[in-house]
Structure formats: structure tokens, C-alpha cells
Amino acid sequence: MTTTQTADLNRLATPPTFQSVSTARKIKNGVATALVYLAFLIAVVPLVWVLYTVIQRGFPVILDIDWWQKSLSGLLSRQQGGGVYHAIYGTLVQGLVCGLISVPIGLFVAVYLVEYGGRSKLAKATTFMVDILTGVPSIVAALFIYSLWITTFGFGRSGFAVSLALVLLMVPVIVRTTEEMLKIVPDELREASYALGVPKWKTIVKIVIPTALSGILTGVMLALARVMGETAPVLVLAAYAPFINYNLFDGPMASLPLLMTAERNNPTQAGFERIWGAAITLVLIITLFNLLATVISRWLAPKTK
Amino acid sequence: MNERIVAKRPADTDTGARRGVPAARPAPEAPIPPTTEAEKKAPHVRPGDRIFRGLATGSGVFIVVLIGAIGLFLLIQAIPSLALDKVNFLTSREWSTGDVNNMRYGILDLLLVTVVSSAFALLIAMPIALGIALFLTQYAPRRLARPFAYVIDLLAAVPSIIYGLWGLFVLGPVLTPIGQWLTSTLGFIPLFAEGNVSIEFGGTIFTAGIVLAVMILPIITAVTREVFDRTPPAHVEGAIALGATKWEVVRTTVLPFGKAGYVSASMLGLGRALGETIALTIILSATGTAFGWSLFDGGATFASKIALAAPEFNDPRSAGAYIAAGLVLFVLTFLVNAAARSIVAGHKEYE
Amino acid sequence: MAKRIDVKDLNLFYGKFHAVDGVSLAVPPRSVTAFIGPSGCGKSTVLRSLNRMHEVAPGARVEGKVLLDGEDIYASSIDPVQVRRTIGMVFQRPNPFPTMSIRDNVVAGLKLAGVKNKKKLDEVAERSLRGANLWNEVKDRLDRPGGGLSGGQQQRLCIARAIAVQPDVLLMDEPCSALDPISTLAIEDLITELKKEYTIVIVTHNMQQAARVSDQTAFFNLLGVGQPGRLIEVDDTEKIFSNPSQKATEDYISGRFG
């Protein structure tokens, strides 16, 4: 590499063709490079460590087929065995119902921001509020639903209350990804559609959204994976049950995070197994949704061949 | 002939691309950013269009109202309980809400623990996130940059409850000797003094802060990376052409360009740390003693205090005390996030 | 079915910016009218106002009249969507819908308007693709995505898509500017054929192209930066290119512009 130093014009002797880089600059560059690589390695350590911990402690537990088929109903806290299908059910259903509510809201907000809002005051306010919503801590979302759904409306704790709190966490994520995806749909496609005499709403529904669909669905899957791991809302809004409860709207309902917090009070080996088994199960579900996101984006992306 | 005419293009013919749209449309004549139907003289709107537009706009309004509602509902629930508070809510360090006729609670300790643990986490995470962002945008081999970025994003995919369990049961014991060494050699500094919980057990702000740092790394990295990626190539090439070393290129172009974005990203990370709930609920040991400014203290943050008590929310009056604490947390994160946003809002080049 | 267009004292605005000032001209049916002029002179803006695409931009305004066979397309009782169904448009860059196959692209206008009859759609697809001189090249791969075609083929696909809805008028906004010379030639041949059935208005930067394909040419110019564009003169193409009545026109087409 050459240097920035200008040649000394007063010197008569021919300078070397390439000036060398001063040692100090070389050292600085080397140190900076080393630090930057080190930073990345430091970040990989906890990831590998956490995953190793989860797999090492949880993997033996989930090999038992009972883990996937039974609940903890009727088991004493020190009795080993049993399973967590009741909690898997709770996690999936609470997450999916949350998705069912969040996706239309998030989609419409993004459509508003990209297709209708323009530079209006409302659009600016909405963008700002979506940003704020992104930063609302999950415990605050849970407290809000508690104040609204349980204290004000008088409903009891339930899986559905959890779903509502998760909506608050999921909507901003969906808005953000959908907005990004809608923005990169070229305006030429919108114009081509208008020029064919297609009304604006139909243009959005049939041309713009399908073009952006793979990106939107990927975002939805990632958002789902995220909310399913949330613990604070289930802690505030649902009571734990060691048995299956299919009713989202009534009664205590388990979910994987809630099961883990409940079993933390269980100092026995059985408690240890349940916690880490639930942890690896949760990680697997999240991984599954992440993979699903990848598959969907490959499968639905606009093709050229 | 035509080439010459094209060159005559007047200055005002820049493309009408909107924010974020890669100059997809080389508008031939005048800027035509097509977002909204223009206000029409002829009020001919199809019913389908009217309904759809209404739904979209309504959803936008809903979001704005929602944030207001969060503040409002928390306030409504908190006020009656605040009226029953026998001590000053903002300056008291007590927290007893069991007896609704004699509720004595204040947030000072919660606030201090929350802020100190988040600040400690930020202190660790900021330089590392900067390094990773530089690594991913400037140093990593092109083909590997994306998979590497994915690895960092994976950190965000791990649920916080798992970080909490790992932090307490795995990381905590490893940190114990480090903590003991720090308290014995640097104990004269209040920050490293012996705390009010057992170092042996690991439930200290020190452990919590390190776990928090890991948790906020991906968000800070992601946002910073995005900003660094937008460094104008012309700046970088200019520096390279002057014979600058890689580090000099970074220092003279990427860092000045991305500084505001990095600060904003760190604020977002801070917001995340302030509100993190379950990991801290698991890690931090409860203590009856007030916070003494040591990293080896235990205690509770706003979020962990609420989470610990949440299963027993039965009397609205005692629940209201926690909701009041939640409201303070909401305001705190609102301010931090708004600040993060306003930093970036002043920088058009990031869009 | 081709219809005539009469533009009367048309003024176009983007917000406060007066983009085009006082344009009046007549486009006879079954002919090709070319709009030429330097960049920024408002020729594309005028073209876009002929099927109410101008108003898609925020703050865009229209004053004056555009008559399609005597009926004002800007009358308050007229739905812009209907206008665009009657007056089709082809854009500067080919823009097939990336999520649709070649066949679906061609019949997109009909499908989105609710036509479901598969047999009819197939008929229209074939007829339109033949009309756009593309049938032979794509008949074996109608189910492939439109994005896989070459640029010139994509542009002919877009023309097929525009004529599939059987418009009365076809507007073309620099349809060849993104294409190579061979594809350009194919499109020009197509325009000559299409004018038997359609009224065509084409914006072009290429004066030879205007001379080759059009019957009538309109020259637009602007007097200075920030000034609105104006129609300088409109006449038979032959006359414009051999003996224009305005000095500015002569300067422009002889390359002495500016």
C-alpha cells in the first residue's frame, strides 16, 4: 500500500518509486484490525456458550418421546418424566393468535405509511409512534393489557390476554419490515397497473403486496419467533397450569417460558430437566420459524426463469 | 445529436424517488413521487378505494392512539394507589405494598439499579458493537459478511429467559472469582466495593450487566452496521486514493459519517436494556438493603420488580403501585427512544 | 374504435410549480403523433395528463380540457380509472409484473377488472401477443415469469398488456429509450402496425424515430429554467422536419439548440 505523504520537492535525488508506510501507521492499522476481529469473536463466544449450555443440558431430556406427548399433570415436582406438550400448545397458540391480530394491523399501517400517508402530519406521527412502540418494554405492554383487559374490562387472566400483549410487541416489527418491502416495490409497477385502469386499492392488493410478499412473510415469521420467547407478558397475564388447557380465553394456560419460570422454584433434578428441556424446545421452535422464514422467502420471491 | 440534447437537462430533473426507493424511476421530466392520489376537483372516489384507504388510515391512527392509551391507562390505574402511598414515590427507597392500608413505596432504588445496570451494559456493549459493525461492513471478506451478520442476529433470536438462566447458572459462577478479585483489590472504589448480596451466588448487577450487554449487542450492531453501509463510496475511494491505510480510511470516512447513527443505535440499545425483564428477574438476587452504588449489589430494576410481583397482582391497590413503577419505566424508555430517533432525524443522508 | 383527442388550453402544475403552460393540440384517430423537445420541457407531463396519470403525483393539478371524441376526461362525473382503461400507456422502462407469468401479465388488466373466463383470457392473451409481435417468441413458455424475457421482449410484453384491455388510444413514454437498436426497430415496426387500429401518442428523445414513425409531430420547449414548458408548434412530421415555421424548432432538429 502506498502512502499519502507528498514527495519532498526540494530533494534532488530520485525518491523510491513507492514510498513506504511509516511503522507507526502500520502498527495503528494492525492494532485496529486486530481489535475489530476480536470484537466479532467476543460476540460469538456467548452465542456458542449459551447454545452449548442449552443443548448439553436439554438435549437428553427431549429425546424421551413422552416429552412431546404428555403434560406434567399429576406429577409431583420431584418426579422425573412427563412432558410439556401443554406448554408447547400454549406457546404456539398464543403466538399464532397474536399473529392473526397483528398481521392485518401491521400490514394496513405499512400500506398507509407507504401508499397513502405521504408526508402528512399523521404519517409522521404514525412513524414516530411505531418507533416508540418498538421500544416499549414487554413488561409495560403486559401492564397495559393488565390495566385494560383485566382491571378495566374485568376479564380474568388468560392465554388471550397474553396474545393481546404480544400484539403490541409484534405490530411494530411487522410494520417496519412490511414498510421496507413495500418501499422497494418499484413505482413503475404501480403506474403500469394504474395505466391499465386498475383502481388504487386493487393495485395495492394484487400488484404491490404480492410483489413484496416473500419479504413480508419472512418478517412475520421472524416476528412470531420473537414473541413466542417473550416471558414478561405470560408472567403477568397468565396463570401456570401443569396440564393441558385448550381454551385460550379462560383458565390457567402453560407456555414454555411460563413453565420455565414456574419450575425455577423446583430445586430437584426433575425441575432442572424441565427447565432446560423447555429451553431447548423453545430454541427449536424459534429455529423452526426462522427456517420457515428462509424457505418462504426462497419459495415466494419473484422469479425470472 | 441526441446526446447533446440529453446533456441540456436542466438542474431540476432529479429523480422523484421517495425515501428509501433506490432511484427506481429516472423521471424524465419533473419529479413525480407517486404516493397519494392528488386532491381532486372531481370527487369521484370508488367505494373500494374509500374503504381501503379508510382501513389503512384508521390503522395509522390506531397506532398513535395506542401509545396514548398505554400512558393513559397506566396513569389511571396508578393514581389511586399513588394517593395511598405514605412516602414520597419519587425519592423513597422503601417498597412495601402488602398492607394496602399502609403502603410505603418509592422508586429511587429501582431507578438507580435500572440505570446503573443498563449503563454498565452499555459501557461494555458499545465498543464491541462498534467493532463488530466495522468488522461486518469494512473488514470481513465480502462473501462471509452476510453469514457473519446472521450469526450476530442470532444473538437476538435467543429468548431472554434463556439468557437469564445461562447468566445465573453458567456465567455467574465463572464471574465469581473475577468479582472477588475486583472487590479485594479495587474495593476502595465504591463501584467495586463489596455489595449487599453474595458474590458467590452471582446474582449481582455485575453479572446482570454483562448478560444485558450480550442481549443489546445485536440491536446496536444492526443499526450501526446499516449506517456504516451508507458511507458514500466516493469518500472511501477518495481516502484510499490518497494512500490511506484501512484504519485511516475508517477513521476519516466511515466513523465521521456514521457517528450519529452509532450514538442513536446505542440509545436504542439502552432503551432495550432499561426495559429488559425476565433475564434480570432471574439473575438479580433480592436484597433488603438499599443500593450502595456497587456493581456487586443485588436489588431489582423496575421491570424485574414488577415481574416478581406480577403473579400476585390481586388487589388493584397494590397492583397500582407496580403499575405506577411501570409508568415511570414507560416514560423513561419513551424518552430514550425519542432521543435516539431525534438524533437520526437530523441526518438526511442516512435515509 | 380509435378516438381523437383534443387538448384545449392545458396547464399542468406540480404544487406551485407551473410545469406546462397553455397547450392546445389535436390528435387525429388512427395516426401517430410524436412529442419531441429537450428534457424538462413537459412533453412527458402532457402525455401523462392525457390518461390522468399526472394526478397520481401528490400536489399535481390540471387546468384546461382534454377531450376524447368530444368528451372531457377531466369532467367531474368521469372516473379516472375508466379513463385509463380507455387510454392505455406504455412506459419508458419495461415494467412487467414480476409475480406474474407471461400470460398473466398480458391479461392482468382484464383479470384485475374481474374477467374470469379462462377461454376468453387465453384468446385475448394470444391476440394481444400476436398484436405485439411477440407470440412466436413466447408461445411455448407462457407460464414462465415475464421477468425472464429480454428487455425488448419485455417492452413488447408491456405493449401486449396495454392493448389487451382494448383501449382507444395508446400513449407511449419513450418506449425505446431503454432498448438496444434491434429491439427499437421491432417496436417501431409494431407502432406502424398498431396505428391501423389505435390512436398513438409517443414521446421520444430520438428525432429520427419521430421522423420514422409519426404522422404528426409536436415540438415542446421551455424558455428558461424554472419556466413552464410550452408547445412551440405542431404540424405534419414531414413539414416539421423539412420546413418548420418556428426558428426554435429548426434549431432543435438541426442540433443547433441552445
UniProtKB/TrEMBL annotation, chain A:
What family is this?
Belongs to the binding-protein-dependent transport system permease family. CysTW subfamily.
Task performed by this protein: Part of the binding-protein-dependent transport system for phosphate; probably responsible for the translocation of the substrate across the membrane.
> In its keyword annotation, does this UniProt entry include Mitochondrion?
no
One Pfam family assigned to this protein is BPD_transp_1
GO aspect biological process, one term? phosphate ion transmembrane transport
Q: Which organism is it from?
A: Saccharothrix coeruleofusca
Q: Which NCBIfam families match?
A: 3a0107s02c
Q: Which CDD domains match?
A: TM_PBP2 (cd06261)
Q: Is Transcription set as a keyword in this record? A: no
Looking at the UniProt entry, the stretches that span the membrane are: 34-55, 87-114, 126-149, 155-175, 207-228, 275-301
Q: What is its main location?
A: membrane
- Enumerate the UniProt keywords alphabetically: Cell membrane, Membrane, Phosphate transport, Transmembrane, Transmembrane helix, Transport
Subcellular compartments: Cell membrane
Q: What is this protein called?
A: Phosphate transport system permease protein PstA
Any one GO CC term of the record:
plasma membrane
Q: How does it sit in the membrane?
A: Multi-pass membrane protein
What positions does the domain ABC transmembrane type-1 occupy?
88-297
Please name the GO terms that the record assigns under molecular function. phosphate transmembrane transporter activity
Q: Which residues form the signal peptide?
A: none
TrEMBL record, chain B:
Topology relative to the membrane: Multi-pass membrane protein
Extract the Gene3D superfamilies matched here: MetI-like
Q: Where is this protein chiefly located?
A: membrane
Q: Return the Basic and acidic residues bias intervals.
A: 1-17
TM stretches of this protein: 55-79, 110-136, 148-171, 201-223, 277-296, 319-340
Q: Recorded GO terms, molecular function?
A: phosphate transmembrane transporter activity
Q: Which InterPro entries does the annotation name?
A: MetI-like (IPR000515), MetI-like_sf (IPR035906), Phosphate_PstC (IPR011864), Phosphate_Transport_Permease (IPR051124)
Q: Name one GO biological process term.
A: phosphate ion transport
A GO CC annotation given for this chain: plasma membrane
**Similarity section:** Belongs to the binding-protein-dependent transport system permease family. CysTW subfamily.
Protein name as catalogued: Phosphate transport system permease protein
UniProtKB/TrEMBL annotation, chain C:
One of the entry's Gene Ontology molecular-function terms is: ATP hydrolysis activity
Quick one: a GO cellular component term?
A: plasma membrane
Q: Which GO terms describe its biological process?
A: phosphate ion transmembrane transport
| Its membrane topology | Peripheral membrane protein
Asked if the record carries the keyword Amino-acid biosynthesis, the reply is no
Q: Which UniProt keywords apply?
A: ATP-binding, Cell membrane, Membrane, Nucleotide-binding, Phosphate transport, Translocase, Transport
Primary place of residence? membrane
CDD domains, per the entry: ABC_PstB_phosphate_transporter (cd03260)
The ABC transporter domain extends over: 5-247
Which SMART domains does this UniProt record tie to the protein? AAA (SM00382)
Subcellular location per UniProt equals: Cell inner membrane
NCBIfam families hit by this protein = 3a0107s01c2
Protein purpose: Part of the ABC transporter complex PstSACB involved in phosphate import. Responsible for energy coupling to the transport system.
Q: Would you tell me the protein name for this molecule?
A: Phosphate import ATP-binding protein PstB
